[in-house]
Specification:
11-stranded antiparallel β-sheet, alpha+beta
Length: about 1450
């Protein structure tokens, strides 16, 4: 139970006190009324004795009475009506509430967390006025709880208002005060009249009420003297006469009203009466008539205004719920007391406004106190002592005869001892009545008198005796009363000689309730016993007792007892918090039925602290719903809105119909709350949920879709998913072009352009938006309910601060309003439906019309529900709600939700890592900048599929859709080799060439048939094609006419495309960069993105090898010529519809070499390749004459039309492939730059040697493919590039691994990959210490000297004439390097293999066997030798070994044998 102000002993003693009646004359009553008090009210604050009192018991033992209190009441001759008592109790509870000002916060108040291990309960519960610091003291205290003053008031009022009963005498009057004023003409006569009146009331059968203790009631005569107006002498004389008549012990002169009302008004006299008068007692019978109590259930929780609207949904919500608030009840407590103004509240107001005791001084207070003491000491207690003695004597004298006779009679008729019957076996003899003089009642009377004067031991003895007699007589009502008081007496005995007999109370309660059907007496038993059990820390037994008495006959009693039971559970040694909460819910329900709305609300709120956050969503929903309704009834609208809001925002498990009802309740309560303050700020709405972090912001117009052959640039849109890798690529492209524009550096204030901001983008800087261009905010809504939500008039909420960035002065901040459309235009969505449990995005637009700082704060909308949203007959409610016209049920409220986005967690510094800090997220705070140009790009005839290497011509249209001109248009891409706008020679290329076959993309001329197989030369500079100028090859200037695109203007430019060399799907990113003619402080440039998706399929695979020619001299006498072997294979699959490929031309591009002629043996003019066919071509290459910066282009034509390879687009793609190749090799070689610098001198020599084996020759193979598509033949054309760098090393048209993969096919390549070793030894090295090769490789050194033998193919000799045949042989030595080389020729070399001897035979060189020469750079030396043969045969002259070394080197090395074929000579005999 809750903590009480009094101890249990004080509570019981004060509950049972001697009752004294007061009978006043009219004049005496008038004297007391001067103080706004009756006589009984006048003396009430002084009725507790401040000193101990002594009396003697029947055994003449001294008995001490401590802290005795008496009760003085006016005589009321008719018993109170049950309805009046109920109303009084209701009012007492109703006016006793927790401290004001705390209930308003009950919904969102603190948490409630129970830690069982240390028995600590943490509670922050504001509606408990007297929760102490915390419940931590549960560890040390026996009981500790909150106070419930309403329960104590109820209990006190209940016990005081109990009507007197015949089976007990505790509330019977022991004495009667007869009060007469000294101002009356004949006071003694008046006393006589009052005495006769009292006698008539007591002994006449006319009056059955009040009850009197004994026939000879003590009469105490009080003469009331008004000091201010009366004559003191007369009063004294009358008092003397009274003493003679009634004795000094039986009368008293009480002087009052010493204070004159009009004087001493400033004196502060205490008012001890107010605390008593506020507790209105049943004796104020004037307030209560036979009130007609309506049994009509008028307890509506929500006003009639909503009743019609919610009849279907809300009224039937809890029809079958056990805690149904509107459940009709026949109990009288169901009356709607909230509508009636109670008399108690009225009297409280009048009492608080009227001063009491205005004519009394402190001396008068002392006189009254002295009067009560005198009455008690001299009158009351001696009378009680005397009565106890008389009763004792009567009992002793009577007991001998009557008891023995009675028991003897029983024995004769029964024959043996009668066993005690259990309570269940006893008959219902509660109707048995004893005559007043019955000995059993005399025992009970004596017991009650002893109990009233605190003689508990004697009282227990008497009760125990009476109990046996009553049980023997089966007088159950009397027996229950004796059992009840015996138990209380046993508990109150000093020293506790015997334990508290709880079973006595159990039996008494059961008897009262089940046999006697007297719930009032049963309730008194429970109240007493529970308090006793609580004091013994038997909380479980107390709770069980309290719960047992809850019933349907009184909701108020049940509510109070359930609440106390709940407090018992939480005060146990191990607090049972869930039981506490559950019983608080039950108590709240009963309070609600009893019309105690505030108490009901408080109970539910207390219980909510336990249920909140435990996942018991249905329980939470019920509690919140009840709190909402009760708060609404009490006009606590904010609390009602908050409670209904909780039901909606938690993931509800309620059925759709219930959720719809909850939503309508919320809307109605919300609407009422907002009507109280219509001009206040828009409140926050709980629905729908907004995922703020998923908010996306898009800057700019929506892109125009493709029209026919025109395809708009893809750019960025809200429909695209965010890809961090792609985003990084776009950022790198933009940085690249900005770096080129700013001569290699990126400005410090550079901010990458972000068109769409989301949770993954970098939102740390304020984004830039352009004036007059829309800002689209995509807000993600989620409807957690199973019913649809309808949002109407949905728009963004913003704040704007105008700023002129050029003038540098700020404007005033403007909130959104009707007059601000000229600053920022707002687009509203008229209707936005979110179906049940749906996540849906809304795209809301703003149109800034001024420069400045914009802050997007949130969204504002009307929230409503859709009529008929609840599914009927099993149909899905969302069906039929897609039409665009939704019928709202007329109930919608306007509110807002803020978009609050938390930035990313900071994790850079140590401080940030050790703490939780978040960076800013500024995606909703754009800066509106000045006007900028806006570019749109369209692609015309842009292909989606190409063959690898295929050339296709398309057109690009650039349109300026803004109001200011744009310039500096550039395009940047990671794949510049994919496209070209043409070089400076592009003007020579006809847009629609007429001379070419099939409108070729190339520039062609018709060739002379005689010039076939020989090279046609032309030249071009790399600078013409943007290569080698020092800029980034990826950044390409778009050749706009006049370099400016005016507002509204458009221009079409040709664009050549070349299919990437690798097959598959390629995503190629184009970033178009442009600037305004005017420079702006905030935004320097703009970009436009386009992603082209090209699917390429296989075409040709080309390998090429270059070898040194054996012939040292060409037609022009120079010693440098090479053979070029080109291997072309058709690896195209027939799925693409390509019939065959034609090799139409092979061109070379180099600064040092050129193709001279084709040495193909095949006589076919055209080279055709069907699927999987391979062709081998051989060409002769010679050194160019001009070795300047210009590239020499040599075209060898296989058809009848020459493609001029030195013009666009052929040269463009060649130079782009060259630059990408250069970039790749440059990156690889860059790591060794520092080491090369260290050993520069030595490296120069090495470099000279390396150059011997290097060749700078690039091959372009141009082809045509004949495709059959839709029974039409198309001719495709393309080119492949092969870069030859090293003599003898095979080069491919694309990287080798990928080449093999293409040739072998995917499956074969995968098999090959599986055969490769899986584990590779890891080598750890430091890049800075990577050693540079100290000497050239063997392969590089072997290419230093080129050798050639000159001799006759056959030699005729007559061996008969001369046995030795001498043949002159010339050995030509050519130094291929620029360095000076020492050469040694060794002629002693013999073939090692016997096979060579058998085939070729043996011969001998004559003359020197070794020659040592020194060749200067590029020198050709001729050495004359002689070979000696002894007989005919075929001989191999290629036996001389040539060694060479650099002048400053020591090691010799052998040159490679350049002759792939043996140098054979035939010796014939003539």
């Amino acid at each position: 139970m809750a903590q009480c102000v009094q101890s249990v002993q004080e509570f019981i003693q004060d509950s049972f006190v001697p009752l004294v009646a007061a009978l006043c004359s009219e004049e005496a009553e008038r004297l007391t009324r001067r103080n706004n008090l009756s006589f009984a009210e006048l003396v009430r604050p002084f009725c507790r004795l401040t000193s101990e009192v002594h009396m003697r018991d029947p055994n003449n033992q001294l008995h001490i009475i401590k802290n005795l209190k008496i009760a003085v009441n006016n005589i009321i001759t008719h018993p109170p009506q049950p309805g009046a008592i109920r109303k009084l109790l209701h009012d007492v509870v109703s006016v006793s509430q927790p401290a004001e000002g705390l209930v308003a916060n009950v919904i969102t108040a603190g948490d409630y967390d129970l830690n069982i291990s240390d028995r600590s309960v943490k509670a922050s519960v504001p509606w408990y006025s007297n929760w102490k610091e915390t419940l931590m003291e549960l560890n040390t205290s026996t009981f500790y709880s909150a106070t419930t003053p309403w329960f104590e008031s109820y209990r006190e009022c209940f016990l005081q208002s109990m009507p007197a009963s015949d089976h007990e005498f505790l509330n019977h009057y022991v004495a009667c005060m007869l009060v007469v004023s000294s101002g009356e003409p004949d006071p003694v006569e008046q006393f006589l009249k009052l005495s006769q009146e009292q006698h008539r009331i007591q002994h006449s059968s006319e009056y059955s009420y009040p009850k009197w203790f004994i026939p000879n009631t003590l009469k105490y005569y009080v003469l009331l003297h008004d000091v201010s107006t009366g004559e003191e002498q007369r009063a004294d004389s009358i008092y003397e006469e009274m003493k003679q008549r009634y004795g000094t012990q039986g009368c008293y002169l009480l002087k009052i009203n010493s204070r004159v009302s009009n004087r001493g008004a400033d004196e502060q006299i205490p008012d001890p009466w107010s605390q008593y008068l506020q507790k209105n007692t049943i004796q104020n019978q004037d307030s209560y008539e036979d009130c007609t109590v309506s049994n009509k259930n008028t307890d509506h929780l929500i006003s009639d205004g909503i009743e019609g609207e919610i009849k279907d949904g809300l009224s039937n919500n809890f029809k079958t719920h056990p805690l149904q608030l509107d459940h009709p009840s026949g109990s009288l407590d169901s009356t709607d007391y909230m509508k009636a103004s109670t008399s108690l509240q009225d009297s409280k107001k009048s009492n608080s406004g009227t001063p009491h005791g205005a004519c009394l001084t402190l001396t008068d207070h002392d006189r009254i106190r002295q009067f009560i003491q005198e009455f008690t000491f001299r009158g009351l207690l001696p009378h009680i002592e005397k009565t106890i003695r008389q009763l004792n004597d009567q009992l002793i004298s009577r007991k001998g005869l009557s008891r023995s006779l009675f028991s003897a009679t029983k024995k004769w008729f029964s024959g043996s001892k009668v066993p005690e019957k259990s309570i269940n076996e006893l008959k219902n003899t509660s109707g048995l009545l004893y005559p007043p003089e019955a000995p059993e009642l005399q025992i009970r009377k004596m017991a009650d008198l002893c109990f009233l004067v605190q003689h508990y031991e004697l009282a227990y003895s008497c009760y125990h005796t009476a109990k046996k007699d009553f049980l023997n007589d089966q007088a159950m009502l009397y027996a229950a009363g004796a059992l009840e008081m015996a138990a209380v007496s046993a508990f109150l005995q000093p020293g506790a000689p015997r334990p508290y007999p709880a079973h006595y109370m159990e039996t008494a309660i059961q008897t009262y309730r089940d046999i006697c059907k007297n719930m009032v007496l049963a309730e008194r038993c429970v109240l007493l016993s529970a308090e006793i059990l609580k004091s013994q820390s038997k909380y479980s037994e107390a709770a069980a007792l309290l719960i047992r008495l809850t019933s349907e006959d009184s909701d108020l009693r049940s509510a109070l007892l359930l609440e106390q039971a709940a407090h018992c559970f939480i005060n146990m040694k191990s607090p049972m918090v869930r039981k506490f909460a559950f019983h608080m819910i039950l108590a709240g329900h009963r309070f609600s039925k009893a019309g105690q709305k505030k108490h009901a609300l408080r109970c539910y709120c207390q219980a909510m602290q336990v249920y909140k956050g435990k996942g018991w969503s249905l329980a939470e929903d019920h509690i919140n719903f009840t709190i909402g309704r009760q708060s609404f009834t009490l006009r606590q609208l904010d609390n009602a809105v908050s409670a209904f809001r909780h039901i909606l925002i938690n993931d509800s498990k309620q059925p759709p119909a219930q959720q719809g009802a909850f939503l309508r309740e919320y809307l109605y309560a919300y609407k009422n709350a907002t009507q109280l303050s219509p001009d206040g700020p828009l409140p926050q709405l709980p629905l729908p949920y907004i995922n703020s972090s998923a908010t996306r912001v898009f800057f700019g117009h929506d892109r125009r879709p493709a029209e026919g052959e025109k395809q708009a640039a893809t750019h960025v849109s809200l429909d695209q998913e965010y890809d961090s890798e792609s985003s990084q690529q776009w950022k790198e492209l933009e940085e690249q072009v900005v770096s080129v524009i700013n001569k290699g550096t990126i400005p410090s204030n550079f901010q990458p352009t972000q068109f769409c901001l989301n949770r993954y983008s970098d939102n740390s800087k304020f984004p830039l938006a352009v004036i007059e261009e829309p800002i689209t905010v995509e807000v993600s809504f989620r409807n957690p309910l199973k019913v649809p939500l309808l949002l109407t008039d949905l728009s963004l909420l913003w704040k704007f601060q105008p700023k002129d960035f050029s003038a540098k002065h700020d404007g005033e901040t403007k909130e959104q309003g009707t007059c601000d459309e000229d600053m920022v235009g707002t687009e509203a969505i008229a209707e936005f439906l979110i179906n049940s449990e749906e996540t849906k995005v809304a795209r809301l637009k703003l149109f800034p019309h001024q420069t400045g700082e914009l802050h997007i704060l949130g969204v504002v909308y009307n929230l409503g529900s859709v009529q008929g949203a609840v599914s009927l007959d099993g149909l899905d409610p969302s069906i039929g709600l897609q039409s665009g016209k939704f019928v709202s049920n007329g109930l919608s409220v306007r509110g807002r939700q803020d978009l609050e986005i938390q930035g990313p967690r900071l994790n850079n510094t140590k401080e940030e890592k050790t703490s939780i800090k978040y960076g800013p997220d500024r995606r909703l705070d754009p800066i509106i900048t000045e006007e900028m140009p806006l570019l749109e790009v369209f692609f015309i005839n842009f292909p989606t599929g190409l063959l690898c290497g295929e050339i296709r011509k398309a057109y690009v249209e650039f349109v300026n859709v803004s109001k200011c001109p744009l310039t500096a248009l550039k395009v940047v891409s990671k794949h510049p080799e994919f496209f070209t706008f043409g070089g400076n020679t592009a003007v020579l290329t006809p847009l629609s060439p007429s001379a070419s076959e099939n409108c070729s993309a190339y520039k062609t001329v018709v060739t002379d048939p005689t010039s076939v197989r020989t090279a046609l030369l032309s030249s071009a500079s790399s600078a013409d094609f943007g290569v080698g100028t020092g800029g980034s090859p990826e950044v390409i200037q778009v050749p706009l006419p006049d370099a400016v695109l005016l507002p509204g203007a458009s221009v079409q430019l040709p664009m050549w495309l070349r299919g990437p060399d690798e097959e598959g799907v390629h995503e190629i990113n184009f970033l178009f960069y442009y600037e305004s003619i005017k420079k702006h402080s905030k935004m320097c440039h703009r970009v436009l993105r386009h992603t082209a998706v090209i699917c390429t399929s296989r075409s040709l695979h080309i390998r090429a090898t270059v070898c040194r020619s054996n012939a040292l001299g060409d037609e022009e006498g120079r010693g440098d010529n090479m053979l070029l072997f080109v291997d072309v294979e058709n690896i195209n699959t027939s799925e693409t519809g390509v019939k065959e490929f034609h090799i139409v031309q092979v061109s070379s591009n180099s600064k040092h070499w050129k193709l001279q002629k084709s040495v193909n043996i095949s006589g076919d003019k055209d080279t055709k390749l069907a699927s999987r066919e391979r062709a081998k071509l051989c060409f002769k290459a010679v050194k160019c004459k001009n070795s300047e910066e210009n590239y020499t282009f040599a075209d060898i034509v296989f058809g009848n039309e020459q493609i001029i390879s030195s013009t666009s687009p052929c040269a463009d793609f060649f130079f782009q492939s060259l630059s990408s190749e250069f970039k790749r090799t440059h990156v690889q070689s860059h790591t060794h730059a520092s080491q090369r610098a260290v050993k520069q001198t030595f490296d120069e020599t090495v470099r000279l040697i390396q150059r011997c084996s290097e060749v700078d020759l690039n091959i372009v193979v141009l082809w045509k493919a004949y495709v059959v598509e839709d029974s039409k033949q198309l001719i495709l054309e393309g080119q492949h590039h092969v870069a030859l760098n090293t003599v003898g090393k095979e080069a491919f048209s694309f990287p080798q691994k990928q080449g093999f993969k293409k040739i072998l096919g995917n499956s074969d390549w995968e098999d090959l990959e599986q055969e490769l070793p899986e584990t590779v030894l890891l080598k750890f090295f430091r890049p800075e210490n990577t050693p540079v090769p100290a000497r050239p490789t063997q392969e590089q050194l072997s290419n230093l000297i080129k050798t050639s033998l000159h001799y006759p193919e056959s030699f005729n000799h007559s061996f008969h004439q001369k046995s030795l045949c001498l043949v002159p042989v010339t050995l030509l030595l050519s130094n291929c390097s620029q360095a000076v080389v020492d050469v040694m020729i060794d002629l002693r070399h013999k073939p090692t293999s016997s096979e060579a001897l058998e085939i070729h035979g043996s011969f001998t060189w004559l003359g020197q066997t070794q020659y040592k020469l020194q060749l200067k750079g590029q020198e050709v030396y001729s050495l004359q030798l002689k070979a000696c043969f002894v007989h005919t045969g075929v001989y191999n002259l290629g036996t001389p070994r040539v060694f060479a070394k650099l002048v400053d080197q020591v090691t010799l090395f052998e040159t490679s044998q350049q002759n792939s074929m043996p140098a054979l000579i035939i010796i014939n005999n003539i």
